[in-house]
Amino acid sequence: MPHILRIDNDPNVVEQNHLGWTGGTVGLVGNRIEHIPDTLLNQAGLAAKAGTSIPSPFARLYLFDAAFRLVMNDLRPAQPTMYHVLVSHCLDLLELLFQAGGSPDLTYRVWSRADRLSALNQKAPLPNAPNRRHPHRVLAKALELDMRHDLANLQTFTLIYYKGALLGGTSPLTLVFTSPNWEQERQNKFLDPPKSSTGRVLFQQEYVPLESRDRTFVTYLSRLFEQYKSLLPENSGLTKFLDKLFRDNPYPLPVDGGKTLNDFNPISTNIEGFSTLQVVTGLPLYSVRADDVLREVEGNSDFVMLPTVGYYKEETNKNGVKTNVRPPLALASRMDVRGRYVKNTDWDSRTVIPSSLLNDLGAGGLLADRRLPGVDNVQYPFVSTDDFLEDFLIRMPFKINNERFFTGTVNRADCDFLLPIRKEYFNFFTLADLRNYLVLDISDLRVTATLKVPVRGQGVRFVEFRKTYELNEPEKVLDLPVGMGFFPFYRLTIPDQQALNKYTVLLADGTTSQATQASFYRFSDVVNRHALTSGKPQPRSPKVGERPASYYYKVNEAFDLVEIQLAHNDIPYRGIVMPEFTTVSNRGYEEFTFAIDFGTSNTHVAYLVKDQGGAKPDPEPLTVTEEDLQMVLLNKPYSGPGISRDYDRYSVKSSFGAFEQLEPLVRREFVPPLIGRNPRLGTPFAFPLRTTIYEREGLTQGGDYLFTKLNLGFNIDLEQVTVGDNNRYVSTLKWLFENKPNDTLNDLRVRAFFETLLLLIRHKVVQNKGDVALTKIVWLAPSSMTRRTRNRLTAEWNKAMQEVFGTTAYFQDEPILESLAPYFYLQRQGVLPTANAVNVDIGGGTSDLMFFAQGQRHYFNTSFRFAANDIWGGGLDETGAPSGRMDNGFVSNFLTYRSNNPSSQKTGADQTLDAFLDPKRRMSPEDVVSLLFKYDDHFQFTKAIQNQQPALLIVLYLHYAAIIYHLVQLIESQEKQEGGTALELPRFLTFTGRGSQYLNLLGTRADLVDYTKRLFAAYTTKPVPTNFQILLTDNPKETTANGAVLYQTATDRDQYRGNQTTAYWGNEPTHPVTFTYNETTVDTVGHENDFHDSVLRNVRDFLEKTLKNNSVSAFLGDFGIRRTQDYYDFLVGSDVTRSSVLHDSYMLAKLPLERDADARLAETFFFLPLKNALYELSKYIAKNQS
């Protein structure tokens, strides 16, 4: 049977009597067309490729037009056809443009009819082409033919790209159309399909009628059709489709009556000349306003977070403009929390939040730029688990100090992990919230962090962010050998005292890379990443062996958190340190007075709190106890058994865990936790402290200095030999400006020492209810100090005050005399205020003598540089400055004694002594002797003198005798100046100052009185008063500072302001001179050879009256000092004025005075022949043992 090739299936056409090609008598007329089957019906899945064989370049546009024509008569099909799917795709694209027309995911390119046809027609003919026409010209002709009818007015259309893949374009027939290759191109580019604002995946093989779409989108389409219907072809499929839906629909669509197109924004293409996305000229497409989307989500979502602070609202873009971000949603992947999400859509518990949506808020990402997960192109802020919880843990080498830092553990359980909270949490919540909502569950195998975030829906409820860190996964946990210390540890909230919130933070980095970075933030500054510090400071000490590198951050205002960060194996690790500072919120009322006795060897700080009840309490040494801790470490103090002293909690190795190297670093370079002499404290650090600083080798001017380059040398008497240490101790700060005048770093050293004292003072006041504005600070200086030196020290005090307090108003520039101050305290120790008294304040570098002639209301003082260091020091170098030599007779004698009596087991004190004796340390003999006295029970330094070489005591007896001799001559010279008014010897002779402690080696108190009376008898005819007494206080160094405090607060101090500072020049009484105190210049005296000879003869007379006096010699003999004549001969020689140990000493000691020829005389010359001579005598005795 023949087969008829035809496209219809009309049964009236007979398939007979046909052979070959037989023409029909009629065409496809009448109802034969109805019998042509549509092979695409019920083939919805083929919609993407439909129409690809239609012989027209614009076939796709006509296909969509036809689809609308067909679907309008079957709006609710039992089974969607391909045409329903095409209509759905067109509506999907319109909805996507409406939701996200301005999104960076969508980009546009304009096709211009005139430009493109002109370009195609300009192609030259090809010789081998049919009719020699270029194919492009053929295409141009086809386009021109196709654009004669419905597309006649089309001058441009716009191609639409989604994330770089061609999605579709605009159409004058249906507004838009989709590309048949969209799905393939999407897959090739590995793109997730876009979603609607309700979370529906767009461009699927399904039919979604308009009535099932977002109400706002339906409203927009209705208004667009109403306003621009005239610009659409009258008989286009879309026109008929929308006309039926909106005007002839038995099922009215949901439309918001109050909205117009003015409630939406025309879509911008960002293309020059075509700034608005238009279908045809005058017919723009619109998108929803961002504010409307934000308002709708904020007003209706059940997952809007309930922040307790609004710092997140301060978010700004890179240009500093506020983003006006809304309260974010709180969402977690696959969270099983019911509630309305966006629009009328509930949250889908299967929703996963991809990392691509989480721009890093900590690295500049903006919350306002985020788009909600599970839906597409809904730009609304949200936060998720990764925003608040870190991906990795940082484990410290010790337990964290949960008494002072928030750890997040239940009931403050022990923890060695930094908080895995991201700092961005505090853009929304407070530390109090974190305490309530964070739970860290720590086991041997894992750490689970659970953070509850309050959201609004259905009353207040919570979304849980949770992360589990498996401890057996190496990359999940980083062991970080780092320690931290904070100084101070309080926070002032009083508005006008914010300038006092200044901190130094130590970061000790034991990592090999030393890449650990600390950033300090206030909660309010986190949102825009404004750290209070920038970058990492230079290391104070580099990492050497197991010793960590040290870095000191200076934070000049209050901060709330520290972010620790580093990269390891290209993995970023972060953790939060949350100090719980002592909060000072009320202005103090206590009135503090501090006195600083800035001594040559030691410095003491005493203070007194004004008693409102009229009592007269004694001054106290400055202390730091657990009640007012100033420096707090991140590691937890030991709290186990076996602790009897507070300091042990902060120093035992177990408190530092696996990072024991931190403890000596803190002692050396930072501030000890506790300071004080109370046995319960048990700390090795107490005032008086050594006047020394610890400085980095290669110290230079410029930049920050305190702690970063040098610090108060708290640890000097605990120092031990350390390989590779790049720091050293510098002592005798008081006289640096004179002893080393050309050293430009002296001001830095002195200022750093002063600043540290003032910081301790400031913190003491603040933490003990003190009113900073009522605080008074005074200092002491000897009258023998030159005006130039005193002025330079005063300048450094003022700079330090400005740095620490922000003002110099609390500081008294003019120092209190070291000779005057002790008297005010000694009156409380038994000195009768009506009796004549002399106080001798013996320091390390100067001695200050004050005479109180109460009967005559006459007070005078003098000062001279003859003190303890002239006993224990290394003599003078060729410039007349302290030499630092270690061959002092006392040191040599001890080293011999130590060698003959070796210790069975070395202690820490022994190691410290070894460090002091190491030449690389450049320590002074004064430092060594100070250490030996401090640990005398262990070293038996005193015993080594008394048992092995008691003859060395003659140096001490002569030192004391020289002061008594000069006192007698001073009194007698004052009598002459007062016109013959008799001055009696003092009833009370008191000694203060750390240097006076050597008097305890001269016998008992009765022995000293006896010796002094014998000296008086040898030196003067004046009678010794009945009941003559010598007072030695238990803590002589403290007496001066205590007295200064009492002087400053005394009501009767005015009578002492007129005390006369004077000097007896040291000449023989029979050879008077006319020098005037503080007027005669050094240059004038330099030419007075007779005067210099007279001084030497006067010293010879002193030695003769002492060493050749039978009474005195007998006394000395009782203490094993037999060869006094030998010592006399050694010192005086054959010609005291030309060739003697005294003469050589005199010539050396004069050099510093003569350095400034214009300087005014301010001290006696009497002691100059003895300064180096006593050192030589000690060597002589040690070498020639008897």
From TrEMBL:
SUPFAM superfamilies: Actin-like ATPase domain (SSF53067). It comes from the Bacteria. This is Ppx/GppA phosphatase domain-containing protein. The lineage of its organism: Bacteria, Pseudomonadati, Bacteroidota, Cytophagia, Cytophagales. InterPro entries: ATPase_NBD (IPR043129).
